[in-house]
């Protein structure tokens, strides 16, 4: 079930975000980001946030927001994080599909991912399978925690 976030979800959202932030491999956020900063970013007023709940437990979180203002305000941006114990079960695919519906409800006509880490091969393949095209490559734009710089991808699709 996809549902809106409540204040009671803040602890579980942090539980889902923290290991991904600390790993530093898929989100372009500081690995030392505090709980307060992460929740402030993730739950910012310009983001419409949803959780995917299965059997009473939150298995993933996602947001939809405008990618730009003004002339680019019709293009959405989204972010997704799957709970550690829920990977490999189609959670990200369901969140992505739900984000398309949410984006349309909010009046968006397209979606763009600005900074998909190229080494996140599962995500790249999933987004491509969901209809996204790689429309740009930012060479060496992401400082990977293993010590090298890897490309970031810009991905786009119409809704």
What's the short story on this structure?
This protein is of the alpha+beta class.
Question: Layout of SSEs?
Answer:
Elements: E1 2-4, H1 10-23, H2 35-42, E2 48-54, E3 57-66, E4 75-82, H3 91-105, E5 110-117, H4 121-129, E6 133-143, E7 149-158
Parallel strand pairs: 4-5
Antiparallel strand pairs: 1-2, 2-3, 3-4, 5-7, 6-7
CATH topology: Aminopeptidase
Number of strands: 7
Superfamily (CATH H level) name: Gcn5-related N-acetyltransferase (GNAT)
Strand count, sense and closure of the main sheet?
A: 7 strands, mixed
Structural class: alpha+beta
Strand order of the largest sheet: 1-2-3-4-5-7-6
Average pLDDT taken over every residue:
95
Net shape: globular
CATH top level assignment:
Alpha Beta
Number of folding domains?
1
Count every helix, treating DSSP H or I runs of 4 or more residues as helices: 4
Please state roughly what percent of the residues sit in beta strands, choosing from under 5%, 5-15%, 15-25%, 25-35%, 35-45% or over 45%: 35-45%
Helical residue percent? 25-40%
Taken in chain order, the helices and strands follow as EHHEEEHEHEE
Could you please describe the fold and organization of this structure?
There is one protein chain. With 159 residues, the chain is an alpha+beta fold. The chain has a single domain (2-158), classed as Aminopeptidase. It is 29% helix and 36% strand. The chain has four helices and seven strands, in the order E-H-H-E-E-E-H-E-H-E-E. A seven-stranded mixed β-sheet has the order 1-2-3-4-5-7-6, sandwiched between helices.
């Amino acid at each position: 079930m996809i549902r809106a976030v409540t204040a009671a979800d803040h602890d579980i959202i942090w539980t889902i975000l923290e290991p991904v932030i600390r790993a530093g491999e898929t989100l372009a956020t500081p690995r030392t980001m505090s709980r307060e900063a992460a929740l402030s970013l993730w739950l910012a007023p310009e983001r419409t946030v949803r959780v995917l709940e299965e059997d009473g437990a939150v298995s993933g979180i996602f947001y939809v927001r405008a990618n730009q203002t003004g002339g680019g305000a019709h293009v959405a941006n989204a972010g997704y994080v799957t709970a550690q114990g829920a990977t490999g079960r189609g959670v990200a695919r369901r969140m992505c599909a739900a984000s398309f519906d949410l984006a349309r409800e909010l009046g968006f006509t397209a979606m763009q991912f600005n900074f998909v880490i190229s080494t996140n091969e599962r995500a790249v393949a999933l987004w491509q399978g969901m209809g996204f095209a790689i429309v740009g490559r930012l060479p060496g734009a992401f400082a990977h925690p293993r010590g090298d710089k890897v490309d970031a991808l810009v991905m786009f699709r119409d809704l």
